[in-house]
Structure formats: structure tokens, C-alpha cells
Amino acid sequence: MPTIKDVARLAGVGLGTASRVVRGKGSVSAAKLERVKQAVEALGYRPSHAARSLLYGSSRMIGVYIPMLSGTFYTAILKIVDAELRAAGLHMMIAFGAGKGEARQEAIDGVSLLVERGCDGVLVLTSPLREEDLALFGAIRERMVALNYAFDSIPDQCFTVDHVLGGRLAARALLEQGHREFAVIAGPWKVQDNVDRIEGFMRELEDAGIGTAGMWVAERDFSAAGGWSAAHELLASNTRFTALFCANDEMALGAMSCFHEVGIHVPRDVSVIGYDDAPSAAFSAPRLTSVRIPWREMTHNGVAALLNLCDGGRRQVARSFPVSVTVRASLGPLGAGVPSPAEAARPPASPRRKARAPG
Q1: Phi, psi at 273, each rounded to 5°
Q2: 223 and 70 Cβ atoms separated by less than 8 Å
């Protein structure tokens, strides 16, 4: 591991000069400053974050806030962010909600922590932050990008999709298969993009002449366990349905697991459609039909925009991200459906005997 002495030796300066450059204290000529910087890079010397900030005029750290550190959804996005930042010579610092307090306050605390640690910019994913909260973050507000969320005051720093359309496409895919009896497992109502996708789903059904006022809808936390418990509750209710829409893929996978456990076949008995088209959707049994959100493209462009804000670069940035449906085996034509308990209790109708021809 290189030391400050190694830096001084390679740069051809005294130990005190190298130390002053790294600590950012004291006067040093421009030529010696540049030689020390080059030596630091050549040796891979790693000063503290505070010293790096003074040495380079930046921390070379980008903060990322996510609402929760669980499941596969955020993991896939974080991998993309990390790869993009490493390619730019930067590193990622993560803050996340613990689910033990009010989500908005957790987001404020998490972003504030990233600001206090000297991050050059901040990427916020699906946050419950409000417009008025942005003022709390001072100058970093000008170097903040939101993924899957839109703030009216910084529209060019927001990268999201039309989630109302996404909900409509989910309903349309089920309607085209002949389904007319639906159930819904929604995410938290305090999350705006969840509200949008459910609203779009309901609008499309209503446009098709299907009433939604009495539809079975459950709120869960976007987890597979939440999907499983909601499906169990749905089966225990007096509800008949032939199709289930889940507001994300993890809840859909949990619901399908519950159906499999009790002998309900997907899609013969009930079709299931998820949302996000996360990597896990392609490897479930059956493989999950899902509304595809172009997360990779959206994340890539959001990071590029953030880097432009931080270093004044001119990276190309796209802002339009089409939504579609990836059709897989969990979607099928109208089948027997899942009967209500009353229907299931009825004895089967006796077959009629054919009358014998006279003679």
C-alpha cells in the first residue's frame, strides 16, 4: 500500500510539500501541485475522502439514495449505476431507508447524509421527497437527478416514464385475452408511481365498460412476501377472478408461489401480470408477463445527466423512454378462473341422459 512518503519520492518533492497538497493546507506552486497529483494517480495512493476533496476539488463520490435495500429490483439498478460511475473514474456511496420510520423523513435524512459526506452529486430513486424538501439540500439541489420520479422545479434533472400508460398496457394485455374479472395487488399508496400505474389500469378497464368500484384491491410493500400474503387473503375472500395485476414483479412472484401451493394453475386457471420486467421475471415458473420499464436506458441517461452537472461535460442524454409489455407464459386466454367459495361449494351439475330414440 503506497504511503505519502512514496508520493513525495515519485513527485520529487519534500514530504511536507506532498502532505500539504494532500491535506489541502498551505501554499504550493502550481508545478509541484501537478506533480503530486500525478504521483497520487500513478501509485494509486488513497487519501481520506476529505483530503481527496481538497486535492481534486471534488470527492469523486456520487451519492445514491434508495427507499429500501432488499429484493432484486434495486440491486439491478445499483449495478448499472456502479458500472457507469467506475467507467468515469468515480465511486458510489449508498444511503437507504430502513423501513423503521416515516418514508419521507428517511429520504430527507438519507440525502442529507450523502450531502454531509461531500458527495459531488446525488441520484435519488423513487423517492417520497416533496418539492419543498429540495431546499434542505442547499447547492447539491443543482447536482441532483431523480430516477422514476418527477419534480416540477427541476424537470431536466428527472428521468421517468408514463406509469399511467404502463397500467393501461397491463389492463389491455389482459382484456385482449378475454378476461373480465380482475383482482389487484398494489404497492404503497404513498408512492406516486404506484398510484399512477393502478390509476392507468383502472381507467383502461372502465374505458372497456368494466366497473371497478367493487374490485378486490390490496395494498402491500412491493415485496414477494407481501404478494404471497395478499394472494392468500384474496383466495380466502369471497372473490371470483380470472386475472391478477400486481404493481411490481416481486409481488407477482409471491402471488404465483401462493397459487402454486394451493393447486391453482397459472395461466390455465388465472393469468398474472407484473410490472417493471425485472430480471427475475424471465426465470420464474411460469415465466412472468410484465410491463417493461426500460430501467437500463433510463438509469444510463440519468447518470450521464448527473455527470454533466458535476463536471460540465456534454454527454448525450435521452429523455424519452417507451413503455411496453413483455409477454411470457403467465398470461393466457380466459380460462376457468378462481371461483368464489360459494361457487366452489356447489355440487357439480348432474349430466343429462340422452333420450333413447323410440323403437
Answers
A1: -130, 135
A2: yes
